[in-house]
Amino acid sequence: MRTPEEKLLNPRPGSKIAEARDYGIDLTLLVENLRRSPVERLRMNDLLNADMERFAEAVKIANRKRKARERGKPR
Asked: What Cα–Cα distance (Å) separates residue 69 from each residue in 39, 60, 64?
């Protein structure tokens, strides 16, 4: 019997996993995540969320500055 990792890395032709791979889903990312412990996955999720929050704040600031420049008012 094949392991879940083997199924993801070498899907059978015509399977849903092969269909997902052919559609463009990077199955190696799933394998990498499955190799992590649940605690490691949560930690990675927390890090990614923090990165996204910083990115969203940077976009808001850049958008405010752009709007201010368009109105001719420095900020």
From this structure: 45, 14, 9
